[in-house]
């Protein structure tokens, strides 16, 4: 019996006892279905987190602040006032502030000289008063930073061109209606006016072209994102009236490192920065704990699916043991006609694998259909505030891996019955009643 005939015989023998085989397939189906849903849940959430990380910063970028000399923990009580310190972004419970030492030219040179730092530039924080289109009503808006490697989640248009000399901006989709745009596509190429107030309380207006419209996400919710040319122009206008010492003082800097750096090399760079008196963080670190929690939840859910598969494996053992017993005389006849023990073993192993394939393929297929339906329903209801999130997403490689794993479990479950059939004595088997 050649391999093709062996496979054909195994497929045909699988449904000799239809009820028993179908019940076994259903048991495998439950495990494969659950595993597909839980795996899709992890894929969807992690994909959303990855997109969010890309929208908040690049993978090869660190945000660096200089530790103030009088830096203390909030629980230590009031902090002594330092006239040279800079109040940075809030970091902690409401009402707390993050006081850091200013970063100037000397500190930028120091950062550039640290081993592992490829490039460094000051983070120019801009506070925009308002945005308006075509002389219309002005609306308050924040401004976010944009560095090479970031990927904003866009509803239309393109990413800002960092190297362009013209003023470009990406606006959030929540501003389309109030600025008078019919949809995201209508805003592309249109001019908007950004207003800032300088240190002398003089108002400055800078016109920029909308090159993209960003979808709301964890990374960009209500901020405009300028290219470098526009950000520099806004910062220059905002800084009018400041003396030289104030101009050369930034609350934080952006540090680039080699994107091919290993985790140990990044950790070593962070340690070197800490030794030099700097705090550093990557965007991935900001969301790392959240991602770990999600992975843990998915792992627990996958464990339940694996338990279901293990229970189904006992069904495979029972089905094939019963099949071996019922076909004892047939096995004896096959061996008496020259069929070797290896082919007998292969025949029953293929039956187990085929049962596993049917259960896993059906479970994975229906799991994808159900998962897509659930994700679509939740996306328009409970998760409507998280646009861009596909709660349950499917990766073809992962689905194929699930099917292969289930088939492997089925093969292992079918080993015992297959060995028993292979070891059967042909003479004794022919005498079996």
From TrEMBL:
GO MF terms held by the record: transmembrane transporter activity
InterPro entries: ABC3_permease_C (IPR003838), MacB_PCD (IPR025857), Macrolide_Exporter_MacB (IPR050250)
All residue ranges annotated as the ABC3 transporter permease C-terminal domain in the record: 303-426
Domain MacB-like periplasmic core: 21-268
CC per GO annotation: plasma membrane
Transmembrane segments: 21-42, 297-323, 344-369, 389-413
Family annotation (Pfam families): FtsX, MacB_PCD
Subcellular location: Cell membrane
Membrane topology term: Multi-pass membrane protein
Keywords: Cell membrane, Membrane, Transmembrane, Transmembrane helix
Family, similarity comment: Belongs to the ABC-4 integral membrane protein family.
Protein name: Permease
Species assigned in the record: Agromyces bauzanensis
Source lineage: Bacteria, Bacillati, Actinomycetota, Actinomycetes, Micrococcales
């Amino acid at each position: 019996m050649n391999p093709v005939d062996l496979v054909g015989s195994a497929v045909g023998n699988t449904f000799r006892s239809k009820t028993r085989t179908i019940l076994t397939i259903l048991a495998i189906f439950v495990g494969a279905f659950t595993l597909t849903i839980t795996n899709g849940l992890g894929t969807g959430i992690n994909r959303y987190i990855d997109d969010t990380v890309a929208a908040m910063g690049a993978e090869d970028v660190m945000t660096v602040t200089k530790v103030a000399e009088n830096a203390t923990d909030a629980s230590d009580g009031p902090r002594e006032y330092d006239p040279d310190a800079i109040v940075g972004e809030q970091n902690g419970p409401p009402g707390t502030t993050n006081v850091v030492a200013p970063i100037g030219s000397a500190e930028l040179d120091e950062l550039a000289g640290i081993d592992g730092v490829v490039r460094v530039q000051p983070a120019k924080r801009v506070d925009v008063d308002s945005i308006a289109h075509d002389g219309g009503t002005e609306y308050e808006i924040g401004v976010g930073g944009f560095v090479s490697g970031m990927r904003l989640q866009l509803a239309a248009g393109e990413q800002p061109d960092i190297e362009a000399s013209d003023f470009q901006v990406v606006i959030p989709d929540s501003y389309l209606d109030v600025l008078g745009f019919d949809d995201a596509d209508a805003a592309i190429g249109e001019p908007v006016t950004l207003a800032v107030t300088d240190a002398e309380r003089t108002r400055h207006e800078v016109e920029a072209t909308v090159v993209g419209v960003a979808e709301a996400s964890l990374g960009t919710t209500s901020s405009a994102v300028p290219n470098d040319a526009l950000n520099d122009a806004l910062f220059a206008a905002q800084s009018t009236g400041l003396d030289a010492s104030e101009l050369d003082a930034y609350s934080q800097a952006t540090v680039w490192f080699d994107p091919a750096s290993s985790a140990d090399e990044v950790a070593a760079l962070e340690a070197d920065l800490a030794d030099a008196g700097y705090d550093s963080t990557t965007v991935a670190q900001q969301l790392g704990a959240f991602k770990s929690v999600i992975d843990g939840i998915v792992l627990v859910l996958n464990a339940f699916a694996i338990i279901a598969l293990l229970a189904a494996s006992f069904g495979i053992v029972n089905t094939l043991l019963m099949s071996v017993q019922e076909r004892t005389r047939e096995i004896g006849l096959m061996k008496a006609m020259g069929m070797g023990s290896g082919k007998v073993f292969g025949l029953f192993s293929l039956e187990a694998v085929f049962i596993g394939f049917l259960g896993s393929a059906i479970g994975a297929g229906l799991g994808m259909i159900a998962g897509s339906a659930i994700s679509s329903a939740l996306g328009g209801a409970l998760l409507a505030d998280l646009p861009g999130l596909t709660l349950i997403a499917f990766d073809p490689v992962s689905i194929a891996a699930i099917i292969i794993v289930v088939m492997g479990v089925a093969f292992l479950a079918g080993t015992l019955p297959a060995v028993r059939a292979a070891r059967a004595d042909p003479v004794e088997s022919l005498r079996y009643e």
